[in-house]
Design a protein that fits this description.
The protein has 346 residues and is α+β, with helices and mostly antiparallel strands. 40% of the residues lie in helices and 12% in strands. It starts with a strand and ends with a strand.
Amino acid sequence: MKLLAIDAIKSGMYLAKDILSAEGKVLLARGTRLTKAYLRRLKDFDYTHLYVCDSDEDKELEIIEPISEKTRIQTVKAVKETLTKALTWQDLNMQQINHLAGVIVDEICGKNDVIFNMMEIREYDDYTYSHSVNICIISTIIGKLLGLPYARLKKLAVGALLHDLGKIYIERNILAKNSNLTPEEARQMHQHPKLGFDRLRIYPELSILSAHVAYQHHEREDGSGYPRGLSDKEIHPFAKIVAVADSYDAMVSKRPYKKPVFNHIALAEVKAKSPLKYDQKVAIALTWAVAPYPIGSVVLLTNKEKAVVTNTKRKKTVVQIIDGKKKGDFIEITKDAEVQIEDRLA
């Protein structure tokens, strides 16, 4: 399995992951032989990349993801609906958010050795929606690794889903600005955590701890964050988890004002900034929660062969050689293996 830009995919390749509609129905099933017509249609639906494989045999490889694609699509849609209603001051459907957060926690807790191992293949009409779901998944995995009980995991997941709700009240030209913010623009941006908290705290069915995730996720261990400059023990543990997940996902995501960095680089940067900026235990847990080389990554091995990551777990990465005499061979890379990943190429 490899991840390719949709313009680089050739007719005859096989789809390696189901493509679902906004309602969660299968549009194209895993194993479908791709044609030019299929590729044109998927491009119309804003797909920029696809997970594909070259042969009919490779398509049988099954990947364990943290949550199902159906759950992801339903949750992105629910977050979009919630933030849209928040903008117009309509009543928010917290029952739906609580339910979907519970589904995400159930799916993650129901899998052993779960890891965030895939890359985004579609451009959503607003980054905030898919970003919020990513933060929820990563935060829940971190919380699980840190031993949080189920009830607290669910409160964490709800807070993570809604952590950026306050951004809906910030002018879009500020959010999308591709240069440094003016002092006044920065002041407005720094208000979004409180705006989100104030909107969420009025709902009795929402834990105040979940609301505090929105309030505190930009605070930092050394007191350099915003909006209140909290530090260390003043910051709730849920907010510390979401702060790390949020920073990581922002680094690896394409935004109008910056290019994304590779996952292993983002992980190293978060770890390097702990314990000064981030809680050290949470930063370490992130390195166990997220794959440094997600499925589909093209990598250079220490023996100078090029390979693509076909599967990854917490203690093992499987790659397939893509050039030379050993093309098509699979290698399992563990901590003690003779061959290691030297660098990521794409």
